[in-house]
Amino acid sequence: MKKIKISAVILLIFISAMVTAQTQAPEGDKVIAVVGNDIITESEFQYQIESYASQNQIQEISPYLVQQIFQQMLTNKIILAKAEQDSISVTDEEVNKELEGRIKNLIDQVGSQERLEEIYSMSLPKIKARLKEDLQKNLKVEKLKRRKFQNGIKVSEREIRDFFNTYRDSLPDVSEEFELSQILMERKVSDAEKIEAKRIAQLILDSIKAGGDFSDLAKRNSTDSMSAIQGGDLGYARKGTFVKEFEETVFNLNPGEVSEVVETQFGYHIIKLNEKLGDKVKSQHILIKFPKFESSDFETINFLKDLKARIENGEITFEEASKQYSEDEASKLKGGNIGKIGMEQLDSMTVVSLKGLSAGQITEPLRLGSDISYGYVIYKLGKVYPEHKLTIEDDYERVKKFAVSFKENTEMEKWINEMRETIYVDVKM
Fold it and tell me: Which of 220, 319, 369, 408 gives a 20 to 30 Å CA spacing to 361?
């Protein structure tokens, strides 16, 4: 469970810019490039520049970066034109799956459908409609890229060394790194949280049994925001789609029947079966997620504090404790060791904690993850590697990644130039 920092605001700015470019381009918007049957407009380009500035929190973009942004837009349009030339297609199922995933992530990140609609200044169906065409294009582009580079880009040791010798003065310095081991525990759902969620679910079920409309109650109460707007509708699904407890219940209902309260890892469900066709069912559900009480966090934090004290008192080694208690399957088998982690990969609180330690010492419990899903971790600090210039001897794998990236870019540029021979491109700026 390594930290991957993604800003919901940044993601929303990027996609919102894309939607706005489609819906608010002024009449007579200047065309700055024609690629095949597609165009790039001045407003579309301007929004991409503004998006880049917002993502990187910069006030002014250099002419070089402006050119890079334009070239990237041009490249995507060329690949799309080639995909259409080659009759690359994507199914509605592929597009809808990607679309639902994107929308769900956005709703999770901003907190609610209402907040998302507020940010976009339009209803959810309109947001979906505006994004769908671009997602279809993006999927075609990615499918053609995968076909072209399906075997990946490989570099020999000779190529790596030649690359390093040629570009060593242009390669970035290696930031300060920490050799770390970890014991990670995910936040547990407490009995109190389960009791509260079940209480709410039971009240809703009682309302259904008293004659309440299932769809209306789903819209007003379900915490599965994606299905709630459809009255809890989950569409048609085959066996193997749902988690075990849900699936066992839904396939044992008769059409029109409503289940009792069902617990899964996501919370408590009330399930209604509408149709059953062989191994497919059409159902609705109302989900009540487990609330998050601070007391549950304290249980995990206090356990890790006690475990830290036991390690420091010599009752158990860090490596033994990691194998026994850590919930990160990859690192626990190695006694918690996760290797060298660059300072830029860690949040500021973790960096401050580590800088206050000596080799062999252990941090206090630190929160790790997003508001949606998180846990707590204690790190044991090993060696600290100061910032330094890249060397082929000490940083071979890092140099290899740069060499692979360079070769990928070179191959991509060559491919784009080949495609331009058969695709009409007219740049008007």
Answer: 369
